[in-house]
Amino acid sequence: MNEFLTQFKDYVIALGEKHQVDPLLLGSLYLVSKVSMVCFLGWAARRFSLKRPITLQLLLASVSFSIPYLYLLIVGRNLPFWIYIFIVLMFVYGAYTIRKKLMTKTTGAGL
Questions:
Q1: What is the pTM of this model?
Q2: Are 33 and 65 in contact, with CB atoms under 8 Å apart?
């Protein structure tokens, strides 16, 4: 098991060097962005149930969702084309998920 983890670590580091992306920074950005996105969505759902504007909260949730992918697009070099397609699909899926979560939370609140 230890040998597998060492090989995986070496592979990720080599891949990061090949595309000029720091894997630790990308992973940290991903983790932080998802936690903050969930917090902003909760804040938006709460404000929506109180019938207050939620534009700022949705904008912040969208930006926090996008941060690791934007980092990859800006810093990454020699990325395969499928990475760009994957990122676009992630943005579409993220927008769909945000909408679905908001509708679920607000419908459950009796609205």
A1: 0.73
A2: yes
